[in-house]
Amino acid sequence: MKAVINYGHGPKDVGHDPGAIGPTGYQETTQNKEVGERVVNKLKVNGWEILAIQDGDLWDVTNGANDFNPDYFLSIHANSFADNIAHGVETIALAAGGMGEKMAKEIQKELVAATGLTNRGVKFNNLHVLRETDCPATLVEIGFISNPAEEALMKQDLFDETVASAICRGFSRAVGVPYTEAVNPVAPNPEPTVMYRIIIDNKQSMALSSQDDAIAEVKKSIDAGQAQKGCVQRNTDFANIFEYAKVQITTPTQENPPLQTLDPSATPEKAGMGKETMTVEKFSSQTSLLRKILQLLLDYFKGGA
Length: 305
Ligand SMILES: [Zn+2]
Prior knowledge:
The chain has 305 residues and is α/β, with parallel strands linked by helices. Helices cover 34% and strands 22% of the residues.
């Protein structure tokens, strides 16, 4: 069983190409390597013979891969888009049908379940590394480095570990090889980067590092009449720490539920102004990432390694 794991783009010494660059300057090439090395370690523990390649020259990547004569090829990337609202995970195969698509489907399924990030689905694209490799090949986009909240997640070891495990589980299932989780000894970041996502009418507009600034942004949009409701969501646990909605007099029905549950004892707001609710830290159904991280930590410490 042989596989090539390609960490997308090039390190400084090999055809340097940083790939996409996040809002704080974090380079895609660094992130791809962080995840890729974990994938390599986990697959090796499971008996795989692995060649890891990171190079800015795509022909060097595919020629090197083909020389190794692998059974499968996986390329790891982070996505980027001019509009920093774009977010979520996607996995790419050359074409529909065959093992490339099967690997993409299984990896995508695991990634979405493990991270709770938006499912952008499996896509098909005539990419060099998928076309020029002589074996089934898949390219994974583990979120958008151009999105401030996802860039912040990518800087955390525990996110890398979660993503790497998901890739290995999906890949192994697709190719029919049993997989046993091997937790890399990671030093958890003692102060994870907390970002506050601003969600206006269910769409994330941006993320800020200051909670107060994020709350002010939400209030501003609603009070200016640009939207009906907004909230501030913390990236680390997906908790909505602040919710704000335009006051509306509506008759709640099944089709037309109230925008927010407002505190009936509160004094009425000025006409046209929003109504705010500081919520008790509540965990949404999107806490799978956090749960996963806690489980990994527990397993790690239980192992006494
Ligand atoms: Zn890339």
